[in-house]
C-alpha cells in the first residue's frame, strides 16, 4: 500500500495490513520540500456523527482543531493517502457494510466530488499470506497467493511497493532474529526468491516502507520498545544498513499513529515525561542525508491515537 504524499499522480495505491495496527506505505519521489503539516482525523466514538480534524504545524508545533459533521452515515476512516495537485487530502474510507471508497477532502474538511487518479488498493495479510486487491475502477476484488518458508511466527508479514514493479514483503520468525524477505513482480506476475535479511538488530519488531525510491525497514527493540531504528534495505543483496535511530522516543510501538513518510522525508512523534506533564515533539529527517532538519515541541493538546493521520 502504495500511495504518494507527493503532489503527483500514480496509477496504483498500496497499503499494508498488520496484526495489531494498520499503516500506509508510500510510493514517493525525491527532491521535494519537507512536509509542513501533520493532519489527524478522529471520529466521535459516542455519536458517530462528527469527526475532529487536527492540524499540527511540523515546524512551529502550533495545533489547530476543528469539529466537523461526518462525511457519510456509518463511515469510518481507513487511511490517509496523500495530497492531490490542488492541495486536497485523499482518504480511504469505508462503511459498516464493508464497502470501501476513495474520498477527496478539502483542507477545511469539506467532501469534494472530483475524482482521484488512483484505482486500486493492495493489502498483504497474514493468512497464507495473500496479496489482497481492491479494484475501485471495476468494483472487484482479487487475491494473490504468496508463500513464505514454513516457520513459526507470531507476527503478520509487512510489505510495501518499490514504486516500479515489485511488492516486497517480510516476516520475522518467532525469535525475531531471522527476517525473511520476498517480492512479487507485477511485470511478470510471479513471486521471487525468499532471502534472509542481514543487518537488522535481533529482537526487533519490523515494518517495511517505501520512500525516496528506496525500501526501508523500521525496527523497534522488543526489550526497549521506545528504541527505534530505521534501516535502508538493499533488496538485491538482502542487507540492511542503519540510516537513523532514536534510542528513546518515549512512545512504545505505535506505528500507525507515530511515524510518517513523505517523499524523501521521515517524520516521527516522540515524547518526554516530567513529573507534571507529557511533552510531545515532531522530528523530521531528510532521507537523502539521514540528518534531522527540524525538531519542534507540539504547542497544544491532540489525540495521540487518531483513526488516521498523515503529513503533507
TrEMBL record:
Keywords: Signal. Residues 1-31 form the signal peptide. This is Uncharacterized protein.
Amino acid at each position: 500500500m502504495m500511495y504518494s504524499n507527493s503532489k503527483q499522480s500514480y496509477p496504483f495505491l498500496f497499503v499494508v495490513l498488520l496484526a495489531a495496527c494498520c499503516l500506509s506505505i508510500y510510493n514517493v519521489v525525491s527532491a521535494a520540500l519537507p512536509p509542513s503539516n501533520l493532519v489527524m482525523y478522529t471520529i466521535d466514538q459516542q455519536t458517530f456523527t462528527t469527526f475532529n480534524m487536527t492540524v499540527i504545524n511540523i515546524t512551529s508545533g502550533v495545533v489547530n482543531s476543528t469539529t466537523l459533521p461526518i462525511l457519510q452515515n456509518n463511515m469510518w476512516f481507513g487511511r490517509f493517502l496523500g495530497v492531490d495537485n490542488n492541495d486536497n487530502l485523499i482518504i480511504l474510507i469505508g462503511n459498516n457494510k464493508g464497502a470501501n471508497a476513495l474520498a477527496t477532502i478539502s483542507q477545511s474538511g469539506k467532501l469534494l466530488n472530483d475524482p482521484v487518479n488512483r484505482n486500486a488498493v493492495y493489502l498483504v495479510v497474514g493468512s497464507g499470506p495473500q496479496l489482497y486487491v481492491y479494484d475501485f475502477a471495476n468494483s472487484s476484488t482479487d487475491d494473490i497467493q504468496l508463500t513464505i518458508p514454513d516457520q513459526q511466527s507470531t507476527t503478520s508479514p509487512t510489505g510495501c511497493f518499490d514504486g516500479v514493479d515489485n511488492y516486497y514483503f517480510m516476516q520475522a520468525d518467532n525469535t525475531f532474529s531471522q527476517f525473511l524477505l520476498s517480492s512479487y513482480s507485477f511485470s511478470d506476475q510471479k513471486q521471487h526468491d525468499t532471502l534472509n535479511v542481514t543487518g537488522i538488530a535481533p529482537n526487533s519488531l519490523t515494518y517495511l516502507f517505501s520512500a525516496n525510491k528506496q525500501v526501508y525497514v523500521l525496527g523497534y527493540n522488543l526489550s526497549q520498545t521506545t528504541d527505534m531504528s530505521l534501516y535502508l534495505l538493499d533488496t538485491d543483496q538482502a542487507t540492511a544498513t542503519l540510516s537513523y535511530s532514536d534510542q528513546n522516543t518515549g512512545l512504545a510501538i505505535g506505528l500507525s499513529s507515530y511515524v510518517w513518510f513523505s517523499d524523501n522525508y521521515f517524520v516521527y512523534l516522540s515524547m518526554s515525561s516530567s513529573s507534571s506533564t507529557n511533552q510531545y515533539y515532531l522530528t523530521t529527517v531528510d532521507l537523502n542525508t539521514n540528518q534531522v532538519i527540524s525538531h519542534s515541541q507540539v504547542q497544544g493538546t491532540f489525540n495521540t491515537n487518531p483513526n488516521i493521520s498523515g503529513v503533507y
